[in-house]
Amino acid sequence: MSVPSHPVSLRRGLLTPGVAVLSCIALTGLVVAVYRFVFGLGAVTNLTNQYPWGLWIGVDVASGVALAAGGFTSAAVAHVFHRRKYEVLVRPALLTAMLGYTFAVIGLMADLGRYYNIWHPLLPSMWQGNSVLFEVAMCVTIYLNVLYIEFMPIVCERFIGRVGLPGPLRLLNGPIDVMLRIARGTLSKIMFLFIAGGVVLSCMHQSSLGSLLLIAPYKMSPLWYTPIMPLMFLLSAFAAGFAMVVFESLLASWTFGRKPEMPVLFAYSRFVAVFLGVYGVARISDLMIREAWGAAFAGDAASYMFLAEIGLGIALPLAMLFSTRVRRTPAGLLTASSLVVFGVLLNRINVFLVAFKPPYAKAPYFPSVPEILVTVGLVAGLVLAYRVCVTVFPVLPVEEHATDEAAETVQQRCPVQAESYVS
Amino acid sequence: MENSTFDRRQFLCRAGAVGLAGLSLAQPALAATDIAEGYGVLVDTTECIGCRKCEYACAKSNELSDLPLEGFEDRSVFNEPRRMTADAYTVVNRYDDTAHPERPTFIKVQCMHCLKPACASACLVGALRPQSNGAVTYDPWKCMGCRYCMVACPFQVPAYEYDHALTPKVSKCSFCFERVSKGGKAPACVDICPPMCLTFAKRSELLTLAREKVKAHPEQYLDHVYGEHELGGTSWLYLTSRPVTELGLMEFGEKPIPEYTEPLQHGIFKHGVPPMLLFGLLAVATKTFHHKEDE
Amino acid sequence: MFHKVRLTIILLALALCAPAFQGRADSGGASMSQKADTGGDCSPCHRTSSPSMDDLLPNSQCRRPRAHENLREDDAAVPDVVTMGQLTDIYVPVVFPHGLHAKMEAIGNGCSACHHHGEEGKIVSCRTCHTESTDPGNLRQPGLKGAYHRQCLACHREWSHDTACIFCHAKRGALGEAASKPDPTDITGKLHPNVTVPEKKVYPTEEQEAGSMVTFHHKDHVDLFGKRCVDCHQKENCSRCHDSAGPQKHVRQDSHEDCVKCHDTSDNCAKCHKDHEEGPFDHDKSTLFMLKEFHKQVACKQCHTEGKFAIGKKSCKDCHAPDWFSKAPKEFDHAKAGLVFSEAHKDNECEACHPNGLGEAPDCTACHDDKAYPKDLPGQRVPEAPEAADGNK
Predict the structure, then answer these.
(1) Does B215 lie at the interface with C, CB-CB under 8 angstroms?
(2) Most C-beta atoms within 10 A of its C-beta, which of A105, B180, C277, C314?
(3) Do residues A119 and A108 lie in contact, with contact meaning Cβ atoms separated by under 8 Å?
(4) Best of B20, B254, B286 to disrupt the A interface by mutation (most A CBs within 10 Å)?
(5) Is the preceding peptide bond at C355 cis, omega within 30 degrees of 0?
(6) What is the mean pLDDT of residues A187-216?
(7) What does the radius of gyration of chain C's CA atoms come to, in whole angstroms?
(8) What is the pLDDT of residue B293?
């Protein structure tokens, strides 16, 4: 297979009906978020003293981080193990991860009671190394910065020689250009450290997110509570990471009316199958060893959620991915990958919201409308940000039958080759 | 090749105190509470009459409520079991006894002040800490309001000021830490208790006392001191006449909650070695596979 | 008619006794051996017009069955009212009607029910041992506050089902005085109400040969047989009577425990266990000695001097002067004593049947070889007791 064409900025207008709808949803979420900051958590959420964690932690943060795992999995495949045919998938995945983590932190800010103290874990005087959450916080903080650094070359690529600040800011154009060139030069030499570090950090905090609820052994449903929850979270993050890249690539192609990268995605979807398979086997054997099967057929809400997660999120997509015919069609691949993504999302919701059965709760937790509005708004904001970024930055690969103009753009805009990351 | 990777690792090891190494910086485990020296309270639930004076004294001492004494005399609150809230660090519940309807059991609940507190193990900024005198205290200035302590607490004690927009606090009994450590007094609830069913003393003495009571009045007490071994022990201890599960208290094993997570955390990230090892392997892989491809 | 008289007596008793006790409570510390001031009339409380210390005969209206018994050497020292004002910050001192409680000690567990752990035979106040500040060195002994509350509440929490503080405590006002007065309907400052004696109780029992029903004529035991409450009611729990949710069932370890004090229950089951409800004690029926208008007035103990009724029966001479019989034998209408002579005996001289003296039991052997009193009678019982006569056939 030939080396895929190099990414370019998407040359497309931003003002589409879809963008308008997304903007409205995001704005609604923003208004509710502002309301939350003015009147407090109690005014908008259904959180109680028994259910201190709700939708925002379960979905915005925990699921957000899991679904942003594509950043490190694709980076590992393409840049650590040098499967260069997949490089075409690295930049969209990196952008998704960067935005995913950024929005996870924004979501976290909304949930934190004292959001202005979010920097406290950075103070050595407050370090509390026994806390799982401390490790998650440190890893996510550092990894977020690693993601920004990993994205820097794309910024350099876009703006070196083209820093066009208007008006009086014009004076800064020169210095910024110099700084970008220095950054590019330095980063090209040490980028491999950040990529390896990013993988390590991701493995650490993806698994530790699973350790978070190990501290509540008396409150968790046996369907999910297992001492190897961190391993489950890591394995499912791998599966979700690979699936998310496939899902997102196909979705982007469909949205932007581009031809899907089927040959690459077909090959890449093997990873999804392998990691989903390992994850599925781990889940089932864990349940067998702990003899917790009974609860799966108890007939309560938790058991249905569990069966949906295993059936729709693991078994069905696994069966689909084992079929080459399914994997060869964009529709089949989109369905399978979206099921995996759905399964992992459901797993995070299940672990953080469904499996958590605190004592003394008067009623089970269900998110309030404002909570849902903020979460939906964040997702809309993330999609919007993605849309803006692929328009501004060279993220998506150029189409194989690119117009002359596009080909020209590639030559103009992309002097830096992907290899420079690791040379 | 090998050397250069090694050098890079060395470099990162030194420079990376900011980053990776910091992650696994297990502080020396929080100063373990000296079980013999810590204070505790023995709650003799057979003597409690449900007068709610402890609730009143607590609210007054901690400035939680402006409610006058009369506000705490309403006994209709017993119709529904209550839990601690942001403005009540302790509540008393009534549990009717079908065998002795004339003598319902009243159970005062508050923070148990675990010897191995789950909340303190969970708190990522050390806002919750076990003190050497037995109290588990909370520092709102450190807190970032993540509420992981509330998830972690097996007794479901901490409450949250959800209605405070700017400076919400985790609220829970402080064992009247200031009052006890600086004022040399017993906690407010202990001080006011009319039938004196709360005894404040060194935990070890309370255990002896509890055993004596059980021995002297086997008809009055079950031979079990709730909190002696539960989850590694708690500073607050309960003597009951009925099984705790009938009294709104949960049954627990002896394994302290932090031991469900801390050994794993410290095992995986011991001195930062495993992450650094993985990092080294990945760095080597990066170079190896790159060169392979070049060939 | 008789009931009306009874009712009058009860009302009279209430009217006379209440102020008398009230006066005692107010005066405080008055000796318990003082008699109730009823103007020299003993009938409100006693079943005899001349009660003595040995023979009190309290009736069912007597509310202090042991009021005149000197239980303790220093009886006069039993305080009537104790003011507990050592620990008052929120509330004003509590007025504790000690006398009221002490009066009931006999059916409870005695003074030691509250004055526990004391030296043998010595009653000490709570304060002697329980100090106002808890002794950290002795966690086993609660402070005075705890001692007071535990002691009171041990009973009160069970019978009132209410442990509200204001039940005993008056709240302190802004200026430190009582903001509210104690509830006058509360037990504080009130006398112990009359104990009402039930007429009878029918107990279902285990199946016995003769039946599974025991009829206990409670009132008769008090009024006729002179049993005091404490003779049976001992180690009672206050809540047995004082339960706002209704009286509780008295659970006995052994159902015979109270009966065996007088009755022999060893092998005479059918005497009490019947298949029907048994009527009240009838002297005529059970003893064949009819109590007519005069003897009906006589207290049982006048004749039955020992506790047990079967024994210790006095002969007539013990009361009636020996010449009472000789003086007016001709006027003595034997029918009034319950016997109408048969034709054969009608004209007999008194001495023919009473050879040992007129006050003694008759002797039939002078004429009959096969007859004996009281199995056989020289005539008929008066018609009021035909069954008794039938029984002799």
Answers:
(1) no
(2) B180
(3) no
(4) B286
(5) no
(6) 92
(7) 28
(8) 54
Q: What is the per-residue pLDDT across B70-83, written as a single tens digit (0 to 9) for each?
A: 888 888 899 999 99
What local confidence, expressed as pLDDT, does residue C322 receive?
Answer: 66
Helix A330-349 and helix A229-255, axial crossing angle in degrees, nearest 10: 140
- Cα–Cα distance between A89 and C190 in angstroms, integer? 92
- Predicted ipTM of the assembly: 0.89
- CA pair distance C57, C45, nearest whole angstrom: 8
Q: Determine the number of helices (DSSP H) and then strands (DSSP E) in chain A.
A: 17, 2
Q: Cβ-count burial of A201 within 10 angstroms (0-12 exposed, 13-18 middle, 19+ buried)?
A: buried
Q: How far is CA C384 from CA B111, C300, C387, in A?
A: 80, 21, 9
In contact, B32 and B197? CB cutoff 8 Å: no
Size of interface B-C (CB pairs under 8 A): 54
Of B47, B103, B212, the CB nearest to C140: B212
Cβ of B205 within 8 Å of Cβ of C171? The answer is: no
Tell me which chain B residues have a C-beta less than 8 angstroms from the C-beta of A80: 282, 285-286, 289
Q: Which CATH superfamily is domain A14-398 in?
A: Formate dehydrogenase/DMSO reductase domain (1.20.1630.10)
Banded pLDDT at A178 (limits 50, 70, 90): very high
Got the DSSP string for A313-342? IIIHHHHHHT-HHHHHSHHHHHHHHHHHHH
Q: 3-state SS string over A180-237?
A: HHHHHHHHHHHHHHHHHHHHHHHHHHHHHHHHHHHHCCCCECCCCCCCCHHHHHHHHH
pLDDT (tens digit, 9 = 90+) per residue, C22-45?
A: 333 333 333 333 344 455 566 655
Q: Which of B18, B255, B264, B277 to mutate to test the interface with A (most CBs of A within 10 A)?
A: B264
CB B227 within 8 A of CB B234: yes
Q: What is the pLDDT of residues C166-187, one digit of tens each?
A: 777 776 665 445 444 544 344 4
Domains of chain C: 1-67 (no CATH), 79-195 (3.90.10.10), 197-281 (no CATH), 292-393 (no CATH)
Residue C330's pLDDT is what?
62
pLDDT of B277: 87
* Helix residue ranges per DSSP H, C214-288: 218-223, 229-232, 238-241, 283-287
Weakest-pLDDT range from A131-135, A281-285, C111-115: C111-115
The candidate with the shortest Cα–Cα distance to A255, out of A396, A376, A363, is: A396
CA distance C91 to B73: 14
pLDDT class of C263 with cuts at 50, 70, 90: confident
Q: Give the residue extent of every domain in chain B.
A: 39-260
Domain residue ranges in chain A: 14-398
Residues 6 or more apart whose CB falls under 8 angstroms from that of A130 comprise: B26, B27, B29, B30, B121, B258, B261, B262, B265, B266
Residue A81 gets which letter from DSSP? S
Q: Residue C171, SS3?
A: strand
Mean pLDDT of chain A, nearest integer: 88
Query: Using 50, 70 and 90 to split pLDDT, how confident is the model at C270?
Result: confident
Choose the weakest-confidence range: B24-28, B47-51, B105-109, C2-6.
B24-28
Query: What amino acid is encoded at C331 in this protein?
Result: E
Residue at token pair 């409150």: A219
Q: Do residue B201 and residue C139 have CB atoms under 8 angstroms apart?
A: yes
CB C188 within 8 A of CB C182: yes
Q: How confident is the model at residue C119 (pLDDT cuts 50, 70, 90)?
A: low
Q: What is the dihedral of CA A15, A21, A25, A28, to 10 degrees?
A: 80
Which pLDDT score, from 0 to 100, does residue C177 have? Answer: 54
Which CATH number is associated with domain B39-260?
3.30.70.20
**B286 pLDDT tier (thresholds 50, 70, 90):** confident
